């Protein structure tokens, strides 16, 4: 039997950028990923707290506080 369990969670984060012409990953600041114990390439679910809509994708680490400010999340 295979069970999928929650390993890390970023709760009530604000998406600060979206690329409507690219469907795929979510880019999260590397420090935020580390704090939430989420690995680059790991499957993640994004949930809209206003209507419950879900999107399953994978995480990509943004630059370590480089062009992304700490805590920035970008959906592409």
Automatic annotation (TrEMBL):
Family, as annotated: Belongs to the PanD family.
- What does the record list as GO biological process? alanine biosynthetic process; pantothenate biosynthetic process
Q: Where is the active site?
A: 25 (schiff-base intermediate with substrate), 58 (proton donor)
Annotated GO MF terms: aspartate 1-decarboxylase activity
Where it mainly occurs, coarsely classed, is cytoplasm
Cofactor needs: pyruvate
Species for this entry:
Nesterenkonia sphaerica
Q: Which Gene3D superfamilies does the UniProt record give?
A: 2.40.40.20
Tell me the protein's name: Aspartate 1-decarboxylase
Keywords, alphabetical: Autocatalytic cleavage, Cytoplasm, Decarboxylase, Lyase, Pantothenate biosynthesis, Pyruvate, Schiff base, Zymogen
Q: Which InterPro entries match?
A: Asp_de-COase-like_dom_sf, Asp_decarbox
What does the record note on quaternary structure? Heterooctamer of four alpha and four beta subunits.
Q: Please tell me where substrate binds in this chain.
A: 57
């Amino acid at each position: 039997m295979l069970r999928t369990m929650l390993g890390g969670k970023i709760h009530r984060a604000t998406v600060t950028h979206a690329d409507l012409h690219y469907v795929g990953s979510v880019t999260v600041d590397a420090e935020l990923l580390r704090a939430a114990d989420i690995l680059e390439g790991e499957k993640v679910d994004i949930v809209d707290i206003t209507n419950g809509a879900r999107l399953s994708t994978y995480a990509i680490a943004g630059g370590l506080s480089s062009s992304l400010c700490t805590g920035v999340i970008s959906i592409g």
